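Per your request, structure below.
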């Protein structure tokens, strides 16, 4: 009985391990999860440059491999090409090292980018979002999605459990993630924020949305809400703390008052009893 459970456990473990290893070796999957939130192949620049025809850049393949292994080191070493692409991206964002990056992984990714560059339409062209001006209805729906009054279709957790916005009710927003009031500015505008939300690539966000991607419509609405909030002053965590503290103080003061009057009344009663009891025998 327990033998068969153990056996089954081992089989499940083996299946999971093989799946994870296969996953780790699959370059398209790796690119989708770790690169696509900042790069397209043939869909224009996002936070980082469009990678189409990468092999035709004036630096060679070895340079690209060094760069993928440690972008910051290559940029800081100060060669002119690195400086150019760094400046073209705003001169502030160092590309992060891909998780578990190795020379082999870098080679595979460059091969993938080459192959995809030759296609009419790469699978990494990125989703094409409409440029239609946002409407009031879009912004309203975005706020509902953010606050979780409207569920995400694929079932991702609502944003408000970890983030707040300038108009999030006091004590309403979670503190695990940053305030998103200025996120359109931080993530460089509508197009690049939309692309970011297609495949969030950061530590906490990635596992939440990997299996539950947001739809184009949902992203459209959220970005409408975020764009309208830019320039408003973000929710103030210390103001929320002060509110909590005040509520605590008022509560505590109330309790002291109640106890105080209860105590006084009791003391009073006891004294009166003592007086009542002792008075007859006081003067026998
Ligand atoms: C957070 C955004 C971000 C992520 C994620 C990211 N990159 Fe980049 N990438 C950049 C930026 C920005 C640059 C421009 C150089 C700089 O500023 O660091 C760049 C530059 C590059 C270049 C050189 C482009 C050129 O035109 O010469 C390559 C190649 C590249 N990235 C590949 C990748 C790959 C492969 C991944 C996934 C493992 C990846 N990047 C993940 C932001 C990113
Ligand atoms: C379980 C907590 C959690 C939930 C739920 C969550 N986030 Fe996040 N988010 C984070 C954390 C933590 C970060 C900081 C980066 C990281 O660790 O992933 C972050 C980062 C971000 C960023 C990048 C912010 C920046 O300034 O770079 C955006 C955009 C974002 N989240 C949007 C959303 C949206 C939209 C939703 C809802 C659809 C959402 N998040 C739901 C925890 C969460």
């Amino acid at each position: 009985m327990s033998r068969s459970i153990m056996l089954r456990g081992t089989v499940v473990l083996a299946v999971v391990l093989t799946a994870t290893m296969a996953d780790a070796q699959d370059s398209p999957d790796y690119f989708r999860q770790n690169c696509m939130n900042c790069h397209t192949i043939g869909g224009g620049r996002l936070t980082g440059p469009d990678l189409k025809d990468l092999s035709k850049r004036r630096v060679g393949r070895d340079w690209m491999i060094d760069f993928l292994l440690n972008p910051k080191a290559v940029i800081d070493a100060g060669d002119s090409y690195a400086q150019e692409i760094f400046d073209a991206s705003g001169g502030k964002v160092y590309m992060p090292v891909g998780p578990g990056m190795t020379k082999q992984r870098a080679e595979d990714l460059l091969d993938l980018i080459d192959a995809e560059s030759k296609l009419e339409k790469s699978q990494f062209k990125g989703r094409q979002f409409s440029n239609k001006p946002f409407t009031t209805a879009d912004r309203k729906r975005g706020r509902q999605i953010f606050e979780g009054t409207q569920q995400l279709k694929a079932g991702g957790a609502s944003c408000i459990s970890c983030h707040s916005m300038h108009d999030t009710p006091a004590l309403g927003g979670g503190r695990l993630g940053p305030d998103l009031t200025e996120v359109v500015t931080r993530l460089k505008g509508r197009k690049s924020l939309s692309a970011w939300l297609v495949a969030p690539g950061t530590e906490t966000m990635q596992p939440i949305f990997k299996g539950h991607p947001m739809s184009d419509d949902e992203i459209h609405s959220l970005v409408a809400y975020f764009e309208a909030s830019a320039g408003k002053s973000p929710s103030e965590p210390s103001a929320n703390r002060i509110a909590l503290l005040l509520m605590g103080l008022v509560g505590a003061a109330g309790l002291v008052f109640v106890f105080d009057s209860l105590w006084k009344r009791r003391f009073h009663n006891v004294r009166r009893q003592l007086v009542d009891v002792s008075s007859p025998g006081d003067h026998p």
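Confidence is low (pLDDT under 50) at residues 15-24, 277-284.

Regards,
D.
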